[in-house]
Amino acid sequence: MHIKKRAAAATGVAAAMAMALSACGGLSTGSGGAGGSGASVGSGSPWPTVKVGGVGVQADIPDISQFCGTKPIKVGYADGNDNNTWRKATIALFKAQAAKCKNITQVVVTDAQNNTQKAISDINSMVAQGVKVIVTFGDAGQALLPTVQKATAAGVAVVPIVSGIGGTPGKDYVDFVSENVETYGKNLADWTVKAMHGKGNLIMLGGVAGSAYSQTVYAGVQKAVAEHPGVHLLNTDGYVATDWDVSKTQQVVAGLITKYGKIDGIVSDFGGGSVGGIRAFIAADKPLPVWSANDSNEFAALWYQYHKRYPSYQIATESSRNWVVEAALNKGLAAYNGITDTEPSTYNLEIIEDSTNPKMMPKYDKSLPADAILSSGLTTAQLKALYK
């Protein structure tokens, strides 16, 4: 396994982020949003023992044993759309963490299948079943907020991750846990533009249409491109939707190749899906562009397979950060059990693989399946079991 925890100092940029809302739902740049000052929300909060809005790195996430408590408890993970390897790895990590608490009697997992009404129903069902801590990937955005507020009022500790749902962390739910999403997008785009030598055509690939997360990544890409007049962002009206799906990504990228012809760089917010796009270039017999994303075993392996044929083909990744679910479960348990928890809400990511840097070459594990995410937080044995 090639998992590194980087204890770099948190930057002031992330600390200054604020919750952003858009017409498609609760968008978050990755900060704690309203109330995210870095201090405990205080006695006026439904969950006064949990600090909201702190900024840090993966190494700041403490062991779950501090927050298990002793009361028997049911916990749940409400996924918005369990349609890819990232989602499956995150669920596996959630279950693995929950298994470390002997008093957790049941782990409930649901898949809303990208259906807002089912996402709402899933959370309501968990509450009715007596689940006391719910971590959710809120693809449905702000449409989930009334349901989450209702769960909070019923004494359920809810922690959204990665995709914000609006509202106020510390009041409407325990906290919002994510990476600094806009900075994540800008970091990838900065590297990509540099590898493109500051000129050429760039495209950003995102997830499902209307995704709060992908739109925020896109905003970071736009900022990077604005600093380089020689780079042309071809998709000027927003990210290109791929549903975070390998097959659809291949189809979409094939269409982009036909439409634009020359593509010099791609920023993607899903490395696992990017392999489909790479296949599209190979099938079209087109030179592979500079490509940045989050890490994936096959994404790295494909670079080793094709970079000699296409010298301009370089890649970089940031962590796929499945491990934010660890912090979210910690916060939910701490809130419900009344245990003090001061770990960060927002996590700064950095480039962890860079094919242009001999000290940061892409890493892959031949003993693991192509879908494996080496930075997920799962052990080699857990990854083998997940992707067998």
Automatic annotation (TrEMBL):
<keyword id="KW-0732">Signal</keyword>
<dbReference type="InterPro" id="IPR025997">
    <property type="entry name" value="SBP_2_dom"/>
</dbReference>
<feature type="domain" description="Periplasmic binding protein">
    <location>
        <begin position="82"/>
        <end position="287"/>
    </location>
</feature>
<dbReference type="GO" id="GO:0030288">
    <property type="term" value="C:outer membrane-bounded periplasmic space"/>
</dbReference>
<dbReference type="InterPro" id="IPR050555">
    <property type="entry name" value="Bact_Solute-Bind_Prot2"/>
</dbReference>
<dbReference type="Pfam" id="PF13407">
    <property type="entry name" value="Peripla_BP_4"/>
</dbReference>
<dbReference type="GO" id="GO:0030246">
    <property type="term" value="F:carbohydrate binding"/>
</dbReference>
<feature type="signal peptide">
    <location>
        <begin position="1"/>
        <end position="25"/>
    </location>
</feature>
<protein>
    <submittedName>
        <fullName>Substrate-binding domain-containing protein</fullName>
    </submittedName>
</protein>
<dbReference type="InterPro" id="IPR028082">
    <property type="entry name" value="Peripla_BP_I"/>
</dbReference>
